[in-house]
Amino acid sequence: MKKVLIAALVALVSISCGDTKKEATEVTKEVVVEKPAVAKEVEKSENTGKEVTLLLSSNDQMQYDKTILKVKEGARVVLTFKHTGTMPKKVMGHNFVLLKQGTDIPSFAQLAMQAADKEYIPESDAIIVHTKIIGGGESVTITFDAPAKGTYDYICSFPGHYSIMKGKFIVE
C-alpha cells in the first residue's frame, strides 16, 4: 500500500513538474521575441545614395527593439515603425522622432507633453522627421533623406517614454 501511494505521489509530482517546465519554456520564447539578442540591436545600411529599408519595432513594455540604426550619408531611408504590443495608442502609444544634434531631450519632451492635440509632436525646429503615434498591432512607414554625417538621437515623444525609449541614428 505504501509503495502504491509513493508511486502515485512521484507520478503526480513528475506530471506537475513537466507542465511547469513547458510553461517556462513558452515564456522564455515570448521574452526572446520581445527582446532580441544584442547582435540584432544594430541595423546597418550598406547603401550610399540608394534607398535603405529599416524596420524598428516597439512593445507594451516601452522598448524599441533596436537602440542603434546606421545608414550611409545620402541614403534615402524608408523606415517602417511597428508596435508589436496590444495596448491602444491612448494608453501605450509610440512614435519615432529623429532629433537634430544638440537637442535638449528633456526640454523637448516637456514641449511634447503639451502637444497632446498634435499627437505629442510640438512645433519645434529640433525635429528632423517623425512618425505619427501608433498603438498595439499598428505600423507606419516614413521616407526621408539621411541627414549629414553624425550621430542623432531618436525618441518616443509619448509622455514619459523618452527616458526609456531612445536610441542613436548614426549616419556614416
Overview of this protein structure:
It is a single chain. The chain has 172 residues and is of the alpha/beta class. It folds into two domains: 1-34; 38-171, Cupredoxins -  blue copper proteins (Immunoglobulin-like, Sandwich), CATH 2.60.40.420. Helix content is 27%, strand content 28%. It has three helices and nine strands, in the order αββββαβαββββ. It has helices at 2-34, 89-92, 105-113, and strands at 42-44, 51-58, 68-71, 76-83, 97-99, 127-130, 139-145, 150-155, 166-171. Strands 1-3-9-8-5-6 form a six-stranded mixed beta sheet, with no helix packed on it. A three-stranded mixed beta sheet has the order 2-4-7, with no helix packed on it. The radius of gyration is 22 Å and the shape is globular. The model is unreliable at 1-48 (pLDDT under 50).
Condensed summary:
With 172 residues, the protein is an alpha/beta fold.
Query: Which second-level CATH architecture of the largest domain applies?
Result: Sandwich
State the shape.
Answer: globular
Query: Please, how many helices?
Result: 3
Q: Ranges with pLDDT <50 over ≥5 residues?
A: 1-48
Helix-strand topology string = HEEEEHEHEEEE
Instruction: Give the C-level CATH assignment of the largest domain.
Output: Mainly Beta
Q: Please state the average pLDDT score.
A: 81
Report the C-alpha radius of gyration, rounded: 22 Å
Number of strands: 9
Give the count of structural domains.
2
The end-to-end span amounts to 76 Å
